[in-house]
Amino acid sequence: KPNHVSIYQHYLDCCEKLGIPGMKEALDRMMVLDYLIVNEDRHQNNFGVVRNAETLAYLGATPIFDSGTSLWFDKPISMIGSKAKLSCKPFKNSHEEQIKLVSSFEWLNLHSLYDIDEELRELMRGSVFIDSARCDALCFALRERVQLLSEVVNTRRTWIPVDDHRSDVTEDTAYSGKDDLER
What is the pLDDT at residue 58? Predict the structure, then answer.
């Protein structure tokens, strides 16, 4: 990768050279989801492409997988919040920078996200791992993330996607918990 090219652009350039269809749109969707759920571990082994097993032709992006380090998975309730500064991958160090890479929000129906916190509440109901206080905190924080995304989408009409390499991820490794011990 040339030093003046961002990781994001390099990945797109490689996909284009290989003839992989729809990658920019798939990355847009992945980055929006990761922004909403505050995914901390979307390193480059946690997304990819699908090929036809017989012809080896590239078919497009894989469905999203391995989002386990999301929704403040290892944070105490007091640290769950929509504006918490958490690590981000694969392209930028922060979700606020990475969401700027999204080329289009035309596909996104914000209205369908307005009650997503209640859907999350229903999914967590009865969990032996998530008590009611944590559930309330997660639902409130997710609702706030939707609001923040709405603000990004609404202000986006006046600015152009920005990609430079200054805030690129420098170490694209899987979550190990090591960083938490060093804080």
Answer: 97
